Amino acid sequence: MKDVAGKAAFITGGASGLGLAMAHSFCAAGMRVAIADIEQAALEKAEAELRPSNAEVLALQLDVTDRAAMAQAADSMEQAFGKVHVLCNNAGVAVNGAVHEMSYPDWDWVVGVNLQGVINTVQTFLGRIKAHGEGGHIVNTASVAGIAPHPGLSVYTTTKYAVVGLSEAMRLDLAGQGIGVSVLCPGMVNTNIFDSGRNRPAALQGERDTAAIALDEVAEHEGAAALIEELRRNALAPTAVGDMVLHAIREDEFYVLTHPEYAEAVATRHQEMQGAFGRWRQHRESQGI
Ligand SMILES: NC(=O)c1ccc[n+]([C@@H]2O[C@H](COP(=O)([O-])OP(=O)(O)OC[C@H]3O[C@@H](n4cnc5c(N)ncnc54)[C@H](O)[C@@H]3O)[C@@H](O)[C@H]2O)c1
Question: How far, in Å, is the centroid of ligand 1 from the Cα of 224?
Fold first, then answer.
């Protein structure tokens, strides 16, 4: 979508971190922006921050797991801006821990926000974007944890692989319809993600209901210490990622892989898969099946 000026974007998790950075980049490019977030105080602060850009800004309190509220947010957005062109499915939370340490509330909270929240937004908005016929672009925020496995981040990794899968499916399904798709897979970015627990609902508190992802605790898992050191060293400023997302929308870039240092981990995973294809081909040949 080369011409973004005047187009309207809906950003979930828009009151902080990556979502707020996208809002800043979009406002600077002359877009109209709705930021949707569960945290009212942060929304008000973000709205005040964005106003001086002279862009049209709308702040909507929204829990992405609430389908009725999502439909209301879409109605409010259309009332304010007429149409929605760009959808950024970005709200996300994290809980640390290996799979055997997770509780049902851990799964329900993180899957609810990171995956079901994205599904709810797509279900609510995609039909509306298709209906106006002007085209658009959808950006799904996944993570490097969606393209290579990370120790000690079991639930989070599950949701992010799912978001990458959904994005790849959407790209095929929407090909030729004037609606581009991008999947954002950042490594470490300096945001409030480590304080995700601030938005954890009382009903979904679990045994591991720590407010923060304690990096040092993740480091207890085998192989994780070096990874965390690398994460810290390579943390990007959110503003840089906001600009990369705008670039991806304009250039219709699918994979937004902001941290090239993960290329090797992805290659290793793919090599293992290629090896497995080869071995199972031989197995089938040897069995005549
Ligand atoms: N920061 C990183 O290093 C990093 C790396 C890879 C991927 N990500 C992803 O980036 C996205 C944005 O996270 P961030 O790093 O900016 O963190 P952040 O905590 O700064 O921002 C996340 C926003 O989502 C909102 N949110 C949480 N639960 C919500 C809900 N139920 N409904 C609506 N809004 C909700 C929060 O209030 C917050 O404003 C997430 O999907 C995260 O998984 C972050």
Answer: 22
Indicate the top mutation candidate among 38, 40, 159 to test ligand 1's pocket, ranked by most ligand atoms within 8 A of CB.
Answer: 38
For residue 33, the cross-strand partners are: 9, 57
* C-alpha span between 75 and 35 (Å, rounded): 14
Fold held by 8-258 = Rossmann fold (3.40.50)
pLDDT beyond 50 at 18: yes
Q: How far is the CA of 11 from the centre of ligand 1 (A)?
A: 11
**Which atom of ligand 1 is least distant from the CA of 42?**
39
Does the pLDDT value for residue 216 go beyond 60? no
Q: Kindly list the strands in the beta sheet with 255-256, ordered across the sheet, starting from the edge strand earlier in the chain.
A: 57-61, 32-37, 8-12, 86-89, 136-141, 179-184, 255-256
Is residue 248 a contact partner of residue 256, using CB atoms and an 8 Å limit? yes
154 class by beta-carbon count within 10 Å (0-12 exposed, 13-18 middle, 19+ buried): buried
Distance between CA atoms of residues 118 and 138, nearest Å? 11
Tokens of 152: 């000690």
Would you call 156 a catalytic residue per the annotation? yes
Cβ(255)–Cβ(35) below 8 Å: no
Beta-carbon contacts of 289 under 8 Å, excluding residues fewer than 6 positions away, are: none
Please name the amino acid found at residue 179: I
Region 97-115 average pLDDT: 94
Angle (deg, nearest 10), helices 117-132 and 154-174 = 20
**pTM of whole model > 0.85?**
yes
The residues spanned by each domain of the chain are 8-258, 263-289
Look up tokens 């399904």; give the residue: 173
